UniProtKB/TrEMBL annotation:
Residues that span the membrane, as ranges: 12-33, 48-68, 75-105, 117-140, 161-180, 200-218, 239-262, 274-296
Region described as Disordered: 317-349
Alphabetical UniProt keywords: Membrane, Transmembrane, Transmembrane helix
Species this protein is from: Microlunatus parietis
Entry keyword Membrane: yes
Name this protein carries in UniProt: Uncharacterized protein
Ranges of Basic and acidic residues composition bias in the record: 324-339
Amino acid sequence: MIMVDQHRFLRFAVAAVVINLGYALVHLAWLIMGEPAWAHGVSVFPGGWVPVLPAVIAVASIMIMILVPRAWRPAAVAAAAAGAALLAYSMLAWIGLLMLLMIPFGLPMPADDLARLVVRVAGAAGGGLTLLAAVARARASRPACPRCGGRHPDLRTRPPGWAVAGGWLAVAGFAARFAVELPDILTAGVSGPGGLGFQLFVALLVLAGTVLPLALIRPWGRAWPRWVPGLAGRRIPRLLVLVPGLVMAAGLLAYFGIGGIGALLTGHDSADPAAWLMIGGYTLWGLGLLLAAAGYARLTDSVAAGCVPVRAAVVPNRQNAGRGEPRPRSDRSKDHEQPHGPQAPSTAG
Ligand SMILES: [Zn+2]
């Protein structure tokens, strides 16, 4: 493991350990001294030991990854499982975050709700960071790149096929979910609690079901399209696309994939076809976003590591406009996965 990758892993690892320790201690204190009244219903799952366990496993497996390099592989698997469990346990965090959006539009959040939201977000953040630490550790085990010595994946110019399939799966899931709502929207328009806030929320949701998954798999999600003044052709900061994709995927999968499907299967919610179309749509949307985001992360990883000469590879110069990454359709037949070319530096500005 070279220093750069160790640094990346350690950043996630330290943050995950701090948050998960705090999360475990708070729940342990509740276990010993009794849960405060406001904390009731902080999760749809039972309290007591249930939230302490994954947080402790997450901390322990991260410590093993740091202290016993030989045993990193099983430790990373345990960390990933514990991280996923924490995300599932904290699935109500996403609803709380959405309600934060509504506050400026006249839907205040009571102090108890806010306190529960803090606990849920801490659980989700600890779980997410634990997953990222496991992924970063696995990344550091890749063979070194012969070009830069870094540990990024193979240099690619196109997303892997499973990521493209994921992007379109997300759009299909979104379409299935909105198909249920469409008759109401056509007759009554978009209205809900919070007035303008709700309409803003629906607009964001539509973007997250169309623009976001496609940005994760299309060239215009990696370099600004040519009609964007001043930025055309420049690389888009990867976290600008990656973070919304991962956060949205985690929220949809935790809330609908686990919570929603679970409620349908256990008979908590009535399982009519419309409910399946809605919750199934949300779940596929989340799953597709996760695949597309993973492909995007792989595709842009080498760029983040500084291996691809960014300006040369992505920003076309005047004569070469359109021959760089975002290229016209007619040029795509010749498209294949090629390592970033030796031609790149010489053709740049
Ligand atoms: Zn490299």
